[in-house]
Structure to design on (239 residues):
């Protein structure tokens, strides 16, 4: 998805805040950056520096949360007042010692899916879209069919490279060292991550709080847009 997936939130929040929704490499209009989580973090750092932003609240949905956490670890938090994560795990791959990643995902299945993205992108787009929402399978702002259509416009090679980078990331230690407040948002109906993942983040980050959206799945900003904006305003004003 591109930064435009946050258009409704920006419309609501821009009454109180200066808002930006950058595209990430492979996900919109950002050429010439590595197709990695680190390349995404560099895009974020470039934005913060070029706009001379301070006291920023970084809002990361899914992979975007990984980018925000990695940005804090690599570049520090001098320009960051807080982080909001939307339905994400610091490590997507599960093993015998970690069961809070993407449901059912192992190192072997992650590698297989990377290859599958390169050769079966239309089917992959359908699968990703099917996991976006909760029980209703849609949202007030975007349907699963619209999600799938946007995903289909992406380059499968780029998406496979990004997927490989995402699934190799392990930011658990970085979460424990995070020195800015974090708001952990998750959907009770998420098909991708469990409530226990959000609870782990809340326990492990030094300054974290949690909000559960009961009628949302993986995409609270699309499924409960008004409540989502209200929660962000409350969190940001308290920083």
């Amino acid at each position: 998805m591109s930064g435009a997936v946050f258009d409704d939130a920006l419309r609501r929040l821009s009454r109180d805040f200066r808002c930006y929704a950058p595209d990430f490499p492979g996900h919109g209009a950002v050429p010439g950056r590595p197709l990695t989580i680190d390349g995404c973090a560099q895009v974020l750092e470039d934005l913060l520096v070029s706009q001379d932003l301070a006291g920023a609240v970084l809002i990361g949905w899914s992979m975007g949360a990984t980018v925000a956490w990695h940005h804090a670890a690599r570049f520090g938090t001098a320009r960051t007042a807080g982080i909001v994560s939307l339905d994400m795990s610091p490590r997507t791959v599960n093993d015998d010692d970690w069961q809070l990643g993407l449901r059912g995902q192992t190192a072997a299945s992650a590698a297989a899916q990377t290859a599958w993205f390169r050769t079966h992108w239309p089917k992959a787009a359908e699968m990703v879209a099917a996991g976006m929402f909760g029980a209703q399978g849609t949202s007030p702002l975007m349907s699963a069919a619209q999600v799938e259509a946007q995903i289909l416009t992406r380059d499968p090679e780029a998406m496979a490279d990004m997927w490989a980078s995402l699934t190799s990331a392990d930011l658990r230690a970085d979460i424990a060292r995070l020195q800015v407040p974090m708001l952990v948002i998750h959907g009770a109906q998420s098909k991708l991550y469990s409530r226990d993942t959000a609870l782990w983040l809340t326990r492990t980050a030094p300054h974290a709080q949690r909000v559960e959206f009961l009628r949302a799945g993986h995409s609270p900003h699309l499924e409960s847009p008004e409540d989502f904006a209200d929660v962000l305003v409350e969190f940001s004003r308290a920083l």
